[in-house]
Design a protein that fits this description.
29% of the residues lie in helices and 20% in strands. It contains 4 helices and 6 strands. Helix 1 packs across helix 3.
């Protein structure tokens, strides 16, 4: 009897995670025209490819993403921090890709997509911040430049978790 309840709870939990992940792109479409109820924006809906091998990893990442802020405004480091230590002990370099996030585990691999330019970059979270509430992620200068965020008027980004600390990131 307890096994049936556990399986039932697990099935409900998986369905909830899938529903939230697939529904979140529609909730994020604040500036887009209204879409038909049965169509989903393909780039956002395919944020996590559910048909790929390693479905367990993808569901784990989707569940982790629900507990952290994974979209919003991006900022980038000042030149002042070049050569200083990050939260995990590495030396920050302006010319390398790195990111700071307040709550994601250090060492997490992420894919950051600029909503203005559509460009994507993969990098690792190696620092804590930003400490200003309106920003969700702090990028290195090189990452901000390659995403086009240093000149864009719209600095909103979407963050996709592609690997946990110690794991190989998901393939592109």
């Amino acid at each position: 009897m307890a096994t049936c309840k556990l399986l039932s709870y697990s099935a409900v939990r998986v369905r909830f995670v899938l529903a939230v992940v697939l529904a979140s792109p529609l909730a994020l479409a604040d500036a887009r025209p209204q879409q038909d109820a049965f169509t989903i924006d393909a780039p956002l809906a395919n944020c996590y490819d559910f048909g790929a091998p390693g479905l367990g990893r993808v569901l784990k990442y989707a569940e982790l993403a629900m507990r952290h802020r994974v979209s919003g405004l991006a900022s980038y480091y000042s030149a002042f921090f070049d050569g200083r230590k990050t939260a995990n002990g590495e030396i920050y370099r302006n010319r390398q890709y790195s990111a700071a996030h307040l709550t994601l585990p250090l060492g997490t691999w992420i894919e950051v997509t600029s909503r203005a330019t559509g460009k994507k970059l993969r990098m690792r979270v190696n620092d804590r911040g930003p400490y200003v509430k309106k920003f969700c992620i702090d990028l290195s200068r090189a990452a901000a430049k390659d995403l086009g965020l240093d000149v864009a008027h719209d600095r909103r980004v979407s963050i996709r978790i592609i690997g946990l600390p110690g794991e190989v990131p998901l393939p592109e």
